[in-house]
Amino acid sequence: MVSFNHMVKSIAYDLDLIFHALSNSTRRAILRDISRCEKTIKEIAKPYKMSLAAVSKHLKMLGSAHLIKRRKEGSFHIIKLNAKGFKSAEQWLSYYQKFWDRRLDALERLLEEGEE
Amino acid sequence: MVSFNHMVKSIAYDLDLIFHALSNSTRRAILRDISRCEKTIKEIAKPYKMSLAAVSKHLKMLGSAHLIKRRKEGSFHIIKLNAKGFKSAEQWLSYYQKFWDRRLDALERLLEEGEE
DNA sequence: TAAAGTGTCAACCACTTGGTTAAATGTTGG
DNA sequence: CCAACATTTAACCAAGTGGTTGACACTTTA
Q1: pTM of the model
Q2: Residue B53 pLDDT more than 90?
């Protein structure tokens, strides 16, 4: 069965955690936000009315889903995207594209050519 | 900002519902199962130890996320995949591919050529 | 029409979520 | 060392989840 698998060095990170993390609009907004530029927790929290503790919990969930990475610089935690979770989600979803998107055939041919 | 948007006649079906629906492994397994062949509720429920009512609730969630369609034939409800939910999820995720998958550039050029 | 079959709905339960506030844990600067 | 800053943890709460069972509704068949 041809699929997008070859795009993904696939370790199946827990899809329950990943999709659950993505199911909340605050968490999706945070991801969109840090996609432009990595940020500290406080910077991430600024647009939201909720407490810093609440944002901290959201980030914990995003972290355990491998959707973000964090590193410490002094007393700051700096957050950026982590490809792993996104790739797992993308890989799972990609299976279904073939059921309706005929153009995918062309994509797959291109990718296979690129690898051979 | 270039993206996969042109692959998706985009009505933004509720991403909270979609990703929440996808966050449960029983529901993901059901989707995988019906991707091969449309099925009745009872057929869908057969592999699981849970009650028919529980499966019925899972299908309700999948339905409200536009991940499945149902039609009635006599006393049977027949379930099959619905592209809408998958496309919304795919569209949302596609935004993030550009942050790590360099090959996407080639894909996008191909698709744009295909449309012009 | 009655019985059997397909599926949903309502009420319930243990558990989780998404938020709160308050206290605790680094870390930096004076 | 002490105070201020950055962030997490703990305890709590209302609402939602994922499952159960039992009653209900619709359709087919005998």
Answers
A1: 0.82
A2: yes
